[in-house]
């Protein structure tokens, strides 16, 4: 029996030297008939969508295989997804500030980038993670080993851009299987100038981050740069004290006009319609689209303002409530935001999410600190102290509010059950509430969605006074 490496070499040669059209041309030529066949099969099976998808996939696969032949079919599958030859040599280095070197293969953009490395334990939702502005200045390492199989579609984006430094994964899917996908993950990252690294030991890197804390890393495809140069780059860059919010915020105020589609509507209360409309001003510190969708679902008219928009201008709008959004980086590095939060709080009902929670904590007199490796994932248990109810939450932050520094009257309402850190605040006298995690999920569970109901109720009570 031939060795696996020998078989791979023969296959490699046959694919490159064999006659026939390129895989890209074959895919383009087959796209229209395959889509037509897919639609025809779904029409035949009617409303049984799951069965129709299975039958359509089988029919499409049979058609492609018969039309192209085995050699071209294998070549097409290998080229799809941008992974190219899976057995090619490593061409990318990730060098951490502790001196460790991790070699892998690149996808997406090329070049050299430096950022803080954090790990995310979410099993799904990599596109929402990629487009979450809170990851600006960070390399996101996915602990789930298989990434890219569902491709990318525009409907799942949480912002218009990818602000993260890069994506680090174990295995990159060489094909996309998702009827909603419009392009592959490598194509998507390449167009947005985001670097990707795969075929590295993500488990080992994660263990190192858990033991030593988040580390700065330099990621490079540039073979002319020495390991020493990249290590120096990693050791001389720091995320602490940097204002990353300004780079992800909008430049001018705008009205959120998009209506929440039925596919996004999971709340019974909002499905049945909302009788009352509230005007909410949302500070964009890196706001996710699903926060705006959830507010819209509750009947809110939303005005989004930039991170440095003066509080005096917000007060002139006389909104029913103000939301302080999520965002990236060090909350102590944006004193202008803290001052705006301080000036607004007490005048209107306010709701802080993630970065907004940390800014509210500072505005009320508390302080924040940098965590060892933060919380990044969709499986963090949180307890509501008043009711004892436990929520599984989506979290993404490297900083937390120190409850010992909070003044009298400010209540800690939620704690993270993994480490006991502060996960929620409330100051009834100032009509203020906040959560350290993401009630809008996307990705993640919907356990915390009732927080939007509490914000709506707070505005309703204030409006009735």
Describe what you observe in this structure.
This protein is an alpha/beta fold. The protein folds into three domains: 4-79, no CATH class; 92-236, 3-Layer(bba) Sandwich (Glucose Oxidase, domain 1), CATH 3.50.30.20; 254-464, Class I glutamine amidotransferase (GATase) domain (Rossmann fold, 3-Layer(aba) Sandwich). It is 33% helix and 25% strand. It has a ten-stranded mixed β-sheet, sandwiched between helices. Strands 1-2-8-6-4-3-9 form a seven-stranded mixed β-barrel. Helix 2 (23-45) packs across helix 4 (70-79) and helix 11 (311-317) packs parallel to helix 12. It is globular and about 70 Å long.
Shape summary: globular
Can you give the mean pLDDT? 85
Strand order of the largest sheet: 10-12-11-13-14-19-18-17-15-16
The number of helical segments is 14
Structural class by secondary-structure content: alpha/beta
Q: How many angstroms does the end-to-end distance come to?
A: 83 Å
As residue ranges, the low-confidence spans are 1-30, 76-87
- The proportion of residues in beta strands is 15-25%
Radius of gyration: 24 Å
Helix content: 25-40%
CATH superfamily of the largest domain: Class I glutamine amidotransferase (GATase) domain
User: How many beta-strand runs?
Assistant: 19
The CATH topology of the largest domain, please?
Rossmann fold
CATH architecture of the largest domain: 3-Layer(aba) Sandwich
Determine and state the CATH class of the largest domain: Alpha Beta
Q: Please, how many domains?
A: 3
- Biggest β-sheet, characterized? 10 strands, mixed
């Amino acid at each position: 029996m031939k060795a696996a490496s020998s078989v791979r070499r023969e296959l490699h040669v046959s694919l490159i030297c064999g006659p026939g059209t390129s895989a890209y041309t074959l895919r383009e030529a087959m796209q229209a008939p395959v889509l037509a066949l897919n639609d025809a099969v779904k029409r035949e099976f009617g409303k049984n969508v799951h069965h129709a998808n299975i039958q359509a996939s089988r029919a499409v696969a049979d058609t492609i295989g018969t039309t192209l032949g085995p050699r071209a079919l294998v070549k097409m599958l290998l080229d799809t997804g941008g992974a190219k030859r899976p057995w090619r040599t490593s061409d990318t280095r990730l060098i951490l500030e502790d001196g460790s070197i991790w070699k892998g293969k690149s996808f997406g953009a090329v070049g050299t980038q430096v950022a803080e490395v954090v790990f995310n334990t979410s099993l799904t939702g990599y596109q929402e993670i990629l487009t979450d502005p809170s990851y600006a200045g960070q390399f996101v390492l996915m602990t789930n080993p298989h990434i890219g199989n569902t491709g990318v579609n525009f409907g799942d984006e949480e912002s218009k851009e990818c602000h993260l430094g890069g994506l680090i994964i174990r295995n990159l899917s060489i094909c996309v299987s998702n009827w909603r996908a419009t392009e592959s993950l490598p194509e998507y990252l390449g167009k947005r100038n985001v670097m990707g690294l795969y075929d590295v030991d993500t488990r080992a890197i994660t263990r190192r981050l858990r033991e030593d804390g988040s580390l700065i890393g330099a990621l490079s495809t540039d073979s002319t740069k020495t390991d020493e140069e990249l290590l120096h780059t990693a050791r001389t860059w720091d995320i602490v004290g940097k204002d990353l919010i300004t780079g992800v915020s909008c430049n001018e105020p705008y009205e959120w006009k998009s209506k929440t589609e039925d596919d996004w509507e999971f709340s019974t209360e909002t499905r049945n319609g909302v009788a009352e409309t509230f005007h909410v001003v949302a500070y964009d510190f890196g706001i996710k689209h699903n926060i705006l969708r959830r507010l819209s679902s509750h009947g809110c008219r939303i005005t989004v303002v930039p991170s440095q928009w003066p509080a005096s201008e917000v007060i002139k709008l006389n909104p029913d409530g103000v939301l302080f959004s999520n965002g990236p980086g060090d909350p102590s590095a944006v004193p202008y935001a803290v001052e705006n939060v301080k000036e607004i709080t007490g005048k209107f009902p306010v709701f802080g999410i993630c970065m907004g929670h940390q800014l509210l904590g500072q505005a009320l007199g508390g302080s924040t600190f940098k965590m060892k490796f933060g919380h990044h994932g969709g499986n963090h248990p949180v307890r509501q102290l008043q009711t004892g109810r436990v929520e599984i939450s989506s979290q993404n932050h490297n900083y937390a509010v120190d409850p010992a520094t909070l003044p009298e009257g400010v209540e800690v309402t939620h704690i993270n059950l993994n480490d006991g850190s502060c996960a929620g605040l409330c100051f009834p006298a100032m009509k203020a509430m906040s959560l350290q995690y993401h009630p809008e999920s996307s990705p993640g569970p919907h356990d915390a969605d009732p927080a939007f109901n509490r914000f709506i109720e707070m505005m309703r009570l204030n409006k009735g006074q």
